[in-house]
Design a protein that fits this description.
The chain is an alpha/beta fold. The protein has 3 domains: 2-47; 54-194, no CATH class; 204-413, sialyltransferase cstii, chain A (Alpha-Beta Complex), CATH 3.90.1480. The protein contains 22 helices and 7 strands. The chain has a 7-stranded parallel β-sheet. α17 links the parallel β4 and β5. α1 crosses α17. The longest helix is centred in the N-terminal third of the chain and has 21 residues, at 2-22.
């Protein structure tokens, strides 16, 4: 392990020298010119450092969804045609599918992947409640498949993640699945976010662990039109922001004192990279990234101001959104308290504050790709376990049942 860390340090130092050269104005202009001519071949030699498995999975989900939207998936199965027919009637005539018809479908009729394809198609068209039923068929099918061919559950990622998800809601297990084999009990009892072994992904975790150890942490969310209690926020030791903090005066206070942490997704990481200014190099933020793709990120890591996030590969479907990814990452460290402010998990008419999402952002498409249900259940489990405190807006959401939550989201979709 020490040898690996030493090699990593040498690589970082070498890249640091390259970055110092690239920061020169003349070479910076040359680099911009090269980027315009051959962006993928030349720039990637400097920027491409690491791509996490969760990022590859996100891209695969995106490609699968693109295939679905382009109708490249065809099936002769009568159930597939029935599901497709129900969706087409809604698109053409605005007639919502009969919920009983969907609930009556045999989960054994399609594969798990086919059910999930149907789930996304319904969800992305605004049929949230109906899509949840189709998704439950996928969960049941993955469990049935495992029970038909027993084996090491840890090797059956899909079945194991389905069991974990059902473990978030024990009542749902008893009401919809009946009894479960004793083999699965330990999985259900295990805390979802603690299932993976606590393996440090790089030496930067050590500094971060000291930074958050025993601290009271506030997470500032992206929800729109939320009145934040600034004085309460100032009582916390650390402030975590999602992506760019923008012109938030409170965030700037924490940044100036070295007490602000920011988790970035790839879109906002790219925006900082495209600025080509000195700002991301000189920031006092401690930043966490999905991967080190750009030179400024590696420069921050060299200065002990950045690290990679602990990925969460055990969602049944989709990948964690920013909030859930932050919660999972923090679960590896010994914090004193976490409280979330400014999150409503898409239960309002305006899901994001101004400037948070990209100009071409499609909310339903993105929520389907991440899987809204996986993310809600995970946040709810974290809250129910007592590891997360919430402001009033988030508290009202996390005390809802899954059905109530989806109904609330669906009522807001028409305003997006």
């Amino acid at each position: 392990m020490q040898k690996k860390i030493r090699i990593e340090q040498i690589v970082f130092l070498w890249r640091n020298l390259v970055i110092l050269i690239l920061k020169n104005r003349v070479t910076s202009r040359l680099r911009i010119g090269l980027k315009k001519m051959v962006p993928e071949k030349v720039v990637r030699n400097f920027d491409g450092f690491r791509k996490t498995s969760s990022e590859r999975r996100y891209e695969k989900i995106s490609n699968d969804i693109d295939d679905i939207e382009c109708a490249e998936h065809h099936s002769d199965d009568s159930i597939s045609f029935l599901v497709g027919d129900l969706l087409n009637k809604y698109k053409l005539d605005g007639v919502r599918p009969c919920m009983r018809s969907i609930q009556g479908l045999d989960s054994d009729s399609l594969s798990t992947d086919q059910w999930l394809q149907a789930y996304f198609s319904f969800f992305s068209n605004g049929l949230v409640s109906e899509s949840a039923v189709l998704r439950s068929k996928a969960v049941a099918r993955s469990i049935q498949k495992h029970e038909q061919v027993p084996g090491d559950l840890k090797r059956d990622h899909r079945a194991m993640s389905a069991m974990m998800e059902l473990g978030w809601d024990v009542k749902k297990i008893k009401s919809t699945m009946g009894g479960l084999s004793s083999e699965l009990d330990p999985i259900i009892q295990a805390g979802f976010s603690r299932y993976q072994k606590n393996v440090s992904n790089n030496i930067k975790d050590e500094k971060y662990a000291k930074m958050v150890s025993g601290k009271r942490i506030a997470i500032l969310g992206p929800a729109a039109s939320k009145m934040l209690d600034v004085e309460e926020l100032r009582q916390y030791d650390l402030l975590i922001t999602t992506n760019e903090h923008g012109c938030n005066p409170l965030a700037n206070e924490f940044i100036a004192s070295g007490k602000c942490i920011s988790y970035y997704n790839s879109y906002h990481s790219k925006l900082l990279h495209q600025e080509r200014t000195i700002r991301p190099y000189n920031t006092k933020l401690f930043s966490i990234y999905r991967s080190f793709e750009y030179d400024y990120q590696v420069y921050q890591a060299v200065r002990d101001h950045a690290r990679l996030i602990h990925r969460n590969d055990y969602f049944f479907n989709g990948v964690p959104q920013a909030f859930q990814a932050i919660l999972h990452d923090l679960s590896y460290f010994e914090f004193s308290e976490i409280k979330a402010f400014g999150f409503d998990l898409y239960t309002s008419e305006h899901p994001y504050r101004s400037g948070y999402q990209s100009p071409t952002h499609r909310v339903l498409y993105d929520l389907g790709r991440h899987d809204l249900i996986s993310n809600f259940l995970y946040a709810k489990s974290f809250y129910d376990s007592g590891r997360l405190k919430a402001d009033d807006s988030l508290h009202r959401v996390l005390t809802l049942s899954l059905t109530e939550y989806l109904e609330r989201v669906e009522s807001c979709i028409v305003h997006w």
